[in-house]
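Fig. S4 source data, part A: sequence.
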Amino acid sequence: MVLVLNGVLQDECIPLDTHSLFMQHPIYRDTANQLLSIPSKTVGPVGLLYVAQRELAAVAPHDKNVHIIGSDDATSCIIVVVRHSGSGAIALAHLDGSGTDEAVSTMVSRVQELALGYPEGRIELQLIGGFRDPTGYAEDLFSNIMQSFHKHPMEIDLTQACIGEVNTIVRGEINWPIIYGIGVNTRTGEIFPATFPDKGPDLCLRSARHFTGGHTVLDVYDSQLGMLRIGPFNYEPLRGVDLWLSQTDEFILQHLSTTPEVEPPHFVMQVRATLKFIQENQFPAITVFRENRPLYYRRDENSGLWSHVRY
């Protein structure tokens, strides 16, 4: 009994679909429309901490390495933001249904750790992304996320829910998401619609995890060191990767997407690059994460970009 909706602590019965949420608490439709009215920004790589699918990261507002934390390409996925109102500490995750309970616990824990020594505040929850997709995948994910937060022992205030029907527009008789991605200003906590052409280092390696059955949500930022941290992890060789790479773009789109009609233009190109990486790195524990060590990236003071360092 720990989710707070519109200022009211909920009993055991919480809305598990977006239509019920907006019917019972119309204020969430209003706050979603405010976010939808903000023009989308194209965010460059300088000062950016990009969080890919099945990843999370947490950052404090005084962190000199991160000015914007964000994620995009969320069609049926949901981007989750947890913020401590007293300290401004923020955790962001891009969830697809795998590892939700563990991700929720980790996000809240990371924010609490970063909030130590700051004025007291509340834990605020914001959900963005997901639309009325034909299979109901995003609705199931919304229910999954709501239940995970509801059973957490902390009181958590839902302050934004730009999801489901309010994040849907009809074009040519097809439902499309309106917002695919968001950025968060780590200094102010401001959330805005965003796209990220540069998604940071080793995106193919990071994406390989969910093509090869990695179900955990990876924490990709070490806030104490101020460094992007990838891995270590391993995966089994992907059977048929050569066959996948020989298929047409349309075949890949139709068979490797939950929402093939509405994927961004770069989807197939990114999938091909990831499959090629998997083909060339069948055992990343050997070829990538030598001695079972993570890959670390430090913010270069001159370029502002993430630069690989030995640590």
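Fig. S4 source data, part B ends here. The two ends are 43 Å apart (CA to CA).
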